[in-house]
Automatic annotation (TrEMBL):
Topological relation to the membrane, as annotated: Multi-pass membrane protein
A Pfam family it matches: Oleosin
Keywords, alphabetical: Lipid droplet, Membrane, Transmembrane, Transmembrane helix
Protein name (database record): Uncharacterized protein
Subcellular location: Lipid droplet; Membrane
Residue stretches spanning the membrane: 20-49
Chief localization: other
Amino acid sequence: MAENNPQLSDQLTKLAKVAAVGGLLLVFSPMLLIFSPVLVPAYIMYWIYRYVTGKHPIGSDQVAKAQEKITDAAADVKDKVVQAGEKIVDTVEDLAKNNIVTKSAEKIVDTADDLAKNNIITESAEKIVDTAEDLVKDGVSQAGELVGGVKNTVENLGKDILKLGGGGGK
């Protein structure tokens, strides 16, 4: 009877397919639920393996874009810190040359405070503030020695930022 009616034959084929898929879902759904705590981490590890070996799994381009954004942001922060550090060194050198203790020390404190407020290597910024306060206390007689200390602190700032950006430092 189905042989004579092509429409009935198509309907029976569709019904058989639906029944087969439904049966598979009934059998495998509980198994997927039971084994998902193993399968999901296994798939994640597989994805990471493919990413690390350069086979570029699905979504790896998004990971690469995010990594690039992070690297760019770290480079921007490094540039800002280097500029601030150069400004500090220039100010301290002016201090040593011109014996202008109070104004230069205030500039140093302001620049270091800006670094600290922006959470850019707070520890190093605090060292710069301490150095500026030492300049005020000790006067110009030790300014040359303190300039060297500030230069070292600024170099350390740059190295710290390179480490944050994945550049490795010198």
